[in-house]
Amino acid sequence: MRVLVLAVTVTFAAMCLSLFCAIAGQSGLTLQSFVTAPTTWLGFLGWAVGLCALIGFVSMASVLDFAFHHRIFIGIATIVLCVFFNVSGSSIGMWATPSGCNLASENAGLLFGTARGIRTDEWLVLTPFFSAQGATGFPLISETIRGASTVTSVVYALPSWSLPILFHPFLAGFLLLGFDRGLAFFWSARLVCLFLASTELGLLLFRRRRGIAMAFGLVCTFAPHAQWWIAINGIAELFIFGSMLVVLLHRFLAAETARQRWLCAVGLFWCAGCYLWILYPAWQILFFYVFLLLGAGIAIQWFRAGGRLSLWQWMPPLAVCGIFWIGLMGACAWLGWPAIQATLSTVYPGARDVSGGDGPSLVKSIFSYLSALGLAPAGAGLTTASSFFTFFPLGLVFGIASCLRRDKLSIALASLAACFLLFMYVEIPVWLAKITFLSQVLTERCPMAIGYIETLLCFRALTLASGGDRKTRRYYGVALALALVLGLGLTVRASQSYPYPLVLLCLLFGCPLVLFVGNLGCFLAAPCTGRARRTALACAVMLCVLPGALANPIQQGTAILTDSSSARVIRELVASDPDALWASERNEVAQYCVANGAATINSVNVYPDLERWHRVDPTGRYEDIYNRYAHIRVNVQDEHATTFELVQADLFSVDLSVEDVRTLGIDYYVSSQDMTALDSADVAFTPVASLEGGWTIYHVE
Questions:
Q1: Which terminus of the chain has fewer CB atoms gathered within 10 Å of its CB, N or C?
Q2: Which residue spans traverse the membrane (predicted)?
Q3: How far is Cα 161 from Cα 175, in angstroms, rounded to an integer?
């Protein structure tokens, strides 16, 4: 039976991977075209052989022992290799597509996968800003971004030679290695540390079960939620430092020497500072409650087990480190205060005031992991819906089963998930939202936190079941069967709106649930030790890991952004006229300019430059439009008045009169239009260079 489940799992996984490639390669996919394509069967055979080898490899006890005992060394070696070969997961290959205005057609550097156009926050915003910092010497106050003095340690934390870099360790690679290799370090180090930190947390929560802890680390690292958002908003840092806070708290309590306590105290406060300076409350607050609950549970368990720590043991390290930490936090806040103050006073996102109650519109988000099975790896999934691979309602049913077995940690986690669900579906009083800081949490972010809790509940249940007697395993087997029945019904209902044939939907949505539950059933039925249990767990984890692992491409180098013919033209003009101010009719072109060192007024304004826009809007009529975090389009037109239009929450357009071009002091304007037709007695547009994609740089005289 176990061999049959293994064979079916490998067969299905290979079919899914072939389907992923087919969806990525063509938009009008049908069942007939999928079945008859020769590449489908070649891909299927290749994937099947590779997956069989992989499962056989990881199910070997000697391999697992080696990987566990040398996991830190293996992680460091992985980072070194990625840095040496300039390998990252960036989607900067999009600059060679219409989404990137076709600004580059050479040196794409794509080794595997597909550049994700939907990840604009990464390839269009964050990575060009990293490049801009490298082109200008990594200043704390950049004159390039926004074309005005911009604090780079807030909103999007960027590498700079300043104090806040202490709490952004993964940005240090840019300072030491430069932009190219720094980007490789940024991607690889966060991925490795996410796995290591999650594994350490798993060892703590799952009774030192090495296989279960490493499986938990893999599922967290390659969860669709983690992989789709890994480059931005500090998502990787959130899990890394949140997990390490819990682990270090346990080690601080269990420390036997003063030296160990001091080291743990330093680590605790440093991780707390790193977590605080992620500065994305919409997720920080939700996961703060999760890690706070885990930390409290660890402390209570330690004290109940007879642990004791005298005042003179814990007070000195915590007091000294706390005072020093407060000083560092104050200094970092003072350096970034202009940006913090400006952000808090914006219409978006500063005016955010949420009290919950948006649940009815978020029902489908509970099943968001479904999109990762076939749509997200193909580039068609919505990243805002990406969550953890819980095969809902498996986590919920397992959690209830553990609660009935009176497992206190499961009871606490399930209660917290219920609170988040309540916040999603019921509008709470404003005063309660404010004192709990949930007023800063978008309700559409709640499913991600709930998914993480469900993942914890699943692995906690596996731990309890694998360490119990036959009666306990049967108990969880019944819960597993109930989850399968509920899950199949809910999955069919939730998958009806996807625009693919019914047979493909069954392959993508129904089969994974059946196979996942089947493998977990084999895990519960297998002896406490042995290859059968390891193989079953490896198969189950593989189904969770594959979609997330395919979420980002494998990219070598950054030449497409910094060494294309367009980039060289921009850099030459910047070198000849370093104080010039740039603008473009497209916000994408503006980001490409700023990436190559051009001070561009409509590069993404991470916080608004009100003084600049007041020059062309002296009455403040349009202030609600430009007082926000925003992408900006600047259209120069032959009109007497400048107007603003809000396109979406983070994008507005400026129809700038020719006279106001001079008012704003723009020296270079990049356009696909013939700007000489707008020449006037006061302003003249002279073409000075051409870029790929049909763009022309005009000097404004």
A1: N
A2: 40-60, 72-96, 154-179, 185-206, 238-255, 262-280, 286-305, 317-337, 366-397, 409-428, 448-468, 475-494, 500-524
A3: 8
